[in-house]
Write a structure and sequence with these properties.
The chain is of the alpha+beta class. 36% of the residues lie in helices and 13% in strands. The protein is built from 7 helices and 7 strands; from the N terminus they run ααααββαββαβββα. The strands form 2 sheets. It has a 5-stranded antiparallel sheet with strand order 5-2-4-3-7. Strands 1-6 form a two-stranded antiparallel ribbon. It is globular and about 50 Å long. The relative contact order is 0.19.
Length: 223
């Protein structure tokens, strides 16, 4: 991998980012840490300019980068609370997730190319069927999702952690070919997250519902 980097660039590279990442990975596994293979995968999103992205990371591994969507990945941008619920469902009941990052108070879930185009239509379809309703009969809405695909670019976190502020990885890329959820899997996670939230709101009581027309007396002052 290092040889490829040096062959593809005309710059005099003084710091080997891949060796740096590999040495950091030795003897430990950190979910939020990008591996050398993960860095190569991210850079491949830039196509022919991938070597330029790697060169910039050589000089500033603790700096975020801007990469285009649509070629290697799409990104689903979601409210962080709802996104956590989606991740819970994906990891506890489903196939797991691809890389996941947090930036500017939003969660970015990396998905298969084409997801940004297909997912909005699937969400509209799901909202129109009875299973999208909660136990109370109310329609439970999925918080607004922003889908980034062809023609869009996103800010990805730095290769190495740079502190609590700024973009950071929750699940960092660690292979050259990470598994990415497609639109159907993301839809499934959205539906499960909505149902989980609805179930949490259900309160079971041994008493029948109160009669709206009944007289109500304040017994707290009874002597």
């Amino acid at each position: 991998m290092t040889t490829w980097l040096r062959d593809e660039t005309s710059h005099d590279i003084s710091h080997d980012i891949f060796r740096f990442l590999r040495e950091g990975d030795e003897g430990r596994h950190q979910t939020a840490r990008v591996t050398a293979d993960g860095a190569a995968w991210l850079a491949s999103a830039a196509g022919g300019r991938g070597a330029d992205a790697l060169t910039r990371w050589e000089a500033r591994p603790a700096s975020p980068a801007t990469l285009p969507c649509g070629r290697v990945f799409d990104v689903v941008n979601v409210d962080p609370v709802f996104g956590r619920r989606m991740l819970d469902r994906l990891w506890s009941e489903g196939p797991g997730s691809g890389p996941v990052a947090v930036h500017r108070g939003r969660m970015m879930m990396f998905a298969a190319p084409g997801t940004a185009q297909r997912l909005p239509a699937l969400l509209d379809w799901e909202a129109g069927i009875p299973s999208a309703r909660s136990a109370y009969g109310r329609r439970e809405a999925v918080p607004q999702l922003l889908c980034h695909g062809v023609g869009d670019a996103v800010t990805v976190p730095p290769l190495v952690p740079s502190g609590p502020s700024g973009p950071r990885w929750l699940v960092a890329p660690d292979t050259r070919n990470p598994w990415l959820p497609g639109p159907e899997v993301v839809l499934w996670a959205c539906v499960r997250a909505v149902r989980a939230a609805s179930a949490a709101d259900v309160r079971v009581s041994i008493f029948p519902p109160a009669d709206p027309g009944a007289n109500v007396y304040d017994v707290s002052r009874r002597r």
